[in-house]
Design brief:
Blueprint (H helix, E strand, L loop, with lengths): L10 E4 L9 E7 L2 E6 L5 E5 H7 E6 L3
Antiparallel strand pairs: 1-2, 1-5, 2-3, 3-4
Amino acid sequence: MGEGAYVLNDVVEMKKPHPCGENRWKIIRMGMDIRIKCLGCDHSVMLPRKEFAKKMKRVIEHHG
């Protein structure tokens, strides 16, 4: 999966699960950084695009 293969509101799977046990995250903001929200506990995290691309495993639900 290359750069730009995900869009706002996509649900993605990350390589490592969140401490709450959930592994599904929703993209809630895109720009220089990407903000994702855990679908298990609603905690949100902001990551630089490069780091997000490295840590993302795959897109589960596409909202293009």
